Structures are given as C-alpha cells and as structure tokens.
Amino acid sequence: MYLSVNLNKAEMGVTKSDLFNEMQNELATVAKVLAHPARVAIIQHLLKSNACINGDLVQELGLAQATISQHLRELKSVGIIQGTIEGSRISYCINPVRWTEIKNQFNELFDQYPTAIPGECC
Amino acid sequence: MYLSVNLNKAEMGVTKSDLFNEMQNELATVAKVLAHPARVAIIQHLLKSNACINGDLVQELGLAQATISQHLRELKSVGIIQGTIEGSRISYCINPVRWTEIKNQFNELFDQYPTAIPGECC
DNA sequence: TAAGTACATTGCAATATTACGATGTATATT
DNA sequence: AATATACATCGTAATATTGCAATGTACTTA
Description:
2 copies of one chain form a homodimer. A 3-stranded antiparallel beta sheet of chain A has the order 1-3-2. Helix content of chain A is 51%, strand content 11%. Chain A has a single domain, classed as Arc Repressor Mutant, subunit A. The longest helix of chain A is centred in the C-terminal third of the chain and has 15 residues. Chain A is mostly helical. The N terminus of chain A is likely disordered. In chain A, strand 2 and strand 3 form a beta hairpin. Chain A is built from 5 helices and 3 strands. At the A-B interface, helix 1, helix 2, strand 2, strand 3 and helix 5 of A face helix 1, helix 2, strand 1, strand 2 and helix 5 of B. Chain B binds a DNA duplex through helix 4.
C-alpha cells in the first residue's frame, strides 16, 4: 500500500527538479534540447557547413522562419551553438568548447555501465 | 520576405517528423527519454544497484508510485531498460545491447565535429 | 478464500512544447 | 528617407508532458 505523505495539492506538469542532483538536471536539460529532430538537423547542418544563417535553415528544413528562430534560441540556451552578427545577418556555428563539454557529460553517463557483466542482469 | 508556401491551417504542437531523416528522429526520441532528471536518476540507480524494483525507486526518488511507473514505461519504450517478472515484483535493469547502441548513436553525432578547426568558426 | 503486496493503467489538472502569422528591430540598399 | 532583407519576439492554437489519486490486475501469504 502506498500512503501519500504529501497532502498538499499536487504540482502537476511541474518537474520536481529539486529532488535531483546537479548532474541529473543538467544532463536532462541538454537532452531536452536534443530531443527534437529539427534541432538535431540544425546541428548536423552546422556540422556540414561549418556556419549558416537562419534563412539557410528555413530553406533546408522546410519550417517557418519563426520556428527556426525558436529552435536556434533553444540550442543557444544550453550553449551548444553561438551566433555572431554579420551585417544584417546572424551567423550560427557550433560552440567547440561547449560541444566537448556536452559530449563528455553524456559519455560520463554512458561509461558508468560496466563493459562486461558476469551473468547477473535480467 | 518570408512568404508562406503552406496555406493549410498550421499544425501546432505537432512535430513534423516526416521532414527529418530516420537518424534525426531516432536520436531525438531517445534524447526525449533522457530529457527528465527523474529518468536520468532511475538509470543511475540501476547502474549502481544493477537491478531494482519500482518500490525502491519510489523510496529513492520521492515521487509517487504511479509517476515512477510512468517513467519506467518511457525508459522501456526505447529499450534502454527491461523488466523481468519475479513473483509479484518486476525487476528492472539496463539492457546492455541497447545501451551500447544508444551510446554509439550519440557518439556518431558527437564525433561528427572535427577535433580541430583552422580558424573558421564564429 | 480473504487480505496484503507490487505494479500498471486510467483520469484529470497544471504546465510545457511546437508551430506559425503578425509584428518589431536593425542593417543594407536604392 | 524609403524600401528591402534578416532575424527576433509576441500572441495564439494545438498537442504533449508531468504528477498523483484512484482503480485495476496479478501474485503471495495468512
């Protein structure tokens, strides 16, 4: 039987981030940014072309300009990309330092799994 | 000027997954499952203890039983964990094969970034 | 068989995300 | 200065996610 200890009104739709540690919250935040195919596609386009502008991505992905702009903002929010003003355009590219940080963050989790387990697991 | 080509009513809140390729959709789907600190915490608990049951996680994370069950279902949905019935309990653990697959999937993306770029980027 | 334990599922409320048209801001061109 | 270009932001509608109480299902024990 599971008795409810918390008698307050439930906070629905709200992630209880105070229950988790820094690493768990940070990894989840970055994962959330990668959790949309358009943003993965934007990243891959930046990997291919080294740098590009909003308009390129509108052409490439077939989403509206406002939508691309919103995705770019989310990618920027975790620092995975950066934008530089170039005249009337903004040139976006991967942030190399942050890229490595994020890669390492994920691999710290991935590498926590022992490569070989005797015969335990289910 | 950005003329709208699509004159149909906008499909809001709906990810246009048909615009993206298989790799992009799959990576995004897995990232979405990792995009919640509770699910990262569940994974880490499984890494530490090799296997555990729903009740353990309720104790460990301080979320309701139904909530843990929901998170476990999402983790199972991408195959990152698996559950085995053990009497009246269900023992969860990491799926080793899928774990490696996912790790490689992410690193395929991460390793697309050239380690050293001359002096191009912004 | 009845009561208890363990977990899933359902139903629902609150919040978050996705998408785009419309509009705003800043630079560039005529 | 007026027009065009490039991008951000706002407003809004549709859908998705999060969380939990209540309930359902299956096994276990008294």
